User: What shape does this take?
Amino acid sequence: MATEALGRPVMDGSRRPFMRRALPYLLSLPALLVCIGILIPFGTAVYYSLQRYNLAFPMTRGFIWFENYTLLFTDPGFWNTVRVSLLYTLYTVGFELVLGLAIAMLLQRRSFFNNTMSILLLLPLMIAPAIAALMWKLMTNPGFGILSYFASLLGFPDFKWASASSSALFTVVLIDIWVYTPFMMVLLLAGLRALPRQPFEAAELDGVPQSFVFFRITLPMLTPYIITASLFRMLESIQQFDIIYAMTQGGPGNSLMVFQVAAYLERYQYTNVGRSAAILMVLWAITFLLSNIFIKQWLRLRERARGVA
Amino acid sequence: MQRQTVIGRGVRVVLLTLVGLFFLFPIFWVLLMSFQTNQDILRIPPSLVFTPTLENYGALISGRLESTAGVLEIRFMNNLMNSVILAVSSVALSLLLGIPAAYAFARFKFRLGEDIAFTLLSFRFAPPLLVLLPLALYFQQMGLIDTYIGLIWVYQLITLPLILWIVRGYFEDISEDIEHAYRLDGNGWFKTFTRIAIPLAKPGIAAATLLSFIFAWNNFVFALILASADKQPVTVGALAFVTASGIQYGQIAASIVLSVTPTLLLALYAQRYLVEGLSLGAVKG
Assistant: This one.
């Protein structure tokens, strides 16, 4: 199906050469307008981040270059945000990768049961993360929550889940794992099923032990899929807002004060527009770096998938 | 590929059962709660035996919640309607804008095209609040704060890149020779696009449509910041409802069930499209 002749435009003689040249621009004009529409508020955000701008004190508004940033970098609260965000990203992506890979390998063989299972496992991914948090809120309610009940059966009679700062991170990471492991699973399962069979058949003929097959054949061949899926999840995880906001709004204390929640509260609770924009600019720099690596990886994998098809 | 022993098979079944329990139990449990009265929900230890009631759904649909503390007005059906309006019109607009652009990017290699495609994609991964917070101020000035139009426009940030990139891949897979042959018969560019290219890219368009609908439906933060109370979708509405109703756990569960049913049914109905869409076409389903 794939054609190599994508590069050249469709030419049919020199009839209406201007229209022909203008056509791609006309067709993509609406998308271009949306792009410009995004770039304007983005520019505004950059501008805000260089201003002393608090809605509660409009008189003090003024241009202060990088003072918001220098204030941020000397504030332990901001470093707590960096720490919590990185821990959240590390835990969620790490567990989701291991769990997703394990489930994908369990479901690798095509059978009616495995196919049905892989479809049903997709369901949590289809639930809005904010709603998923509400579901877990009901299940971890200290009075009647089923999970609190299970915890008490396991010998933790008053496990506080998201309402204690010692277990809040654990709880939101668990919800994230519940929602997003299916994403890892589905990508890695497709990857596993797309691998060539010959190396595995040869290994079986030679009686190579399974652990060797896994570490020397499966894992290396699956690496492009693992990298792409992990980068994608990292990009989302470091920006997580919905689950944490719906669950605890960053609390208790500032135990879940990740980037976007911190910026949201800075803007709506403390009306500090400048500082909020600066926090988001730091996050943007991180995601910009990650997304560039991700897009390269993804394009490479996409070429490969279309080459196979 | 793998030696299937009896023990191996047993371990596999046990592990998969555990996995299934972890991922499906919460959905099952909240569904049960939505059919329980508050007395049943508050019972300890929790029990699977109860007389199911439709009261919770009744209260949500009628919009009046009568309790010992008085009568509470619920606007949840309004939220549900908003979700439908926002998701459907955002996706429709994205298809209208995205399919011609995807075709242009696939058929004509032009510098600006690549730049637009990448800008859209990279903003898909930028922190949404960065754009939303300034937008909230602009929306106030432009009088868009209380309208669907403003929200639908911002929703293009989620739906348009998805449609653009998935459909583009499908257009690139169509052999140009087919289009050439059709054009040699004297058909114009537009006819070729609508009669040949679009029908051939249909599976891609279907996948992109379903996925972008699900993402639009599930979005939370856009409406949280930009929508006024009577334009809020279910994601924001359910959270507001939890805050307002406090202890009406049965109704909360019912509102959750109503919010997730459309996307779950769509996903089950269209599961064969999901894999390709989720990876923006990087992995064939």
About this structure: The first helix of chain B runs from residue 6 to 33. The mean pLDDT of chain B is 86.
